[in-house]
Design a protein that fits this description.
Helix content is 11%, strand content 64%. The chain is mostly beta strands and 213 residues long. The strands form 2 sheets. Strands 2, 3, 4, 5, 6, 7, 8, 9, 10, 11, 12 and 13 form a 12-stranded antiparallel sheet that branches. A hairpin with a 7-residue loop joins β11 (164-178) and β12 (186-203). The protein starts with a helix and ends with a strand.
Length: 213
């Protein structure tokens, strides 16, 4: 009888410990974009080569500039992309944003100076990113990329020496539409976006530290 009581007491004690652990376990905290001074202008440029957009058309390579503003520490950072010198299969591609922006979202901390995140393509008024492939001086194929949220994965790494943030894009499942003059017309959701950029902050035209934590 005494042994049974002891076993029961041990079992109740173990359950109590599990309950305490469940209550006290810290919830994953979303990261935040921070600068040394506000308001701050955030600019970005690609590093380690061009960004690549892979679709049914093949691999499109583009330079990328980014610009946005941060008025306070935030889990979100909206930036306007400028695609530069885009090429696919040796043909130039003209890109028009039509009011669309990138919205970076900071997620949980992955490790020292690293934060996971996602990317939203936000297009007020139903606009779409438009990519026009020019062949023989004429736009032959048009690809449109509509608004879509929660694209991943995106990883942020704060560089402690340069005091800026590197962003790595490894996005899959990008939705897009190919026009009737494209080799494969229709709507698809198999696009990929890959590349790296460095984001820097300036306040009153002076450099200020920038990080995600």
């Amino acid at each position: 009888m005494k042994t049974a009581r002891k076993l029961k007491a041990v079992g109740l004690f173990a359950l109590a410990l599990l309950a305490i652990g469940a209550v006290s376990a810290p919830a994953a905290q979303a990261g935040e974009f921070e600068t040394g001074a506000f308001p701050a202008t955030i600019t970005g440029q690609q590093i380690n080569g061009p960004h690549e957009i892979t679709t049914e058309l093949g691999v499109m390579a583009c330079g990328l500039n980014l610009e946005g503003e941060l008025t306070e520490a935030s889990e979100e950072l909206t930036m306007t992309p400028e695609f530069l010198n885009c090429m696919i299969a040796g043909n130039p591609v003209d890109v028009v944003n039509n009011g669309c922006d990138f919205r970076f979202n900071a997620g949980a901390t992955l490790g020292m100076d690293m934060v996971e995140g996602s990317l939203d393509l936000i297009c007020p008024g139903g606009g779409k990113f438009t990519f026009g492939v020019t062949i023989g001086g004429v736009v032959q194929c048009v690809m449109k990329v509509p608004e879509q949220l929660g694209l991943g994965e995106v990883t942020y790494r704060t560089t402690t020496m340069a005091q800026d943030v590197d962003v790595e894009f490894n996005i899959e499942g990008l939705s897009y539409e190919l026009g009737p003059n494209c080799p494969a017309a229709g709507a698809f959701a198999n696009g990929e976006y890959a590349g790296e950029s460095t984001l820097r902050a300036h306040s009153e035209e002076m450099f200020t530290p920038f990080r995600v934590k």
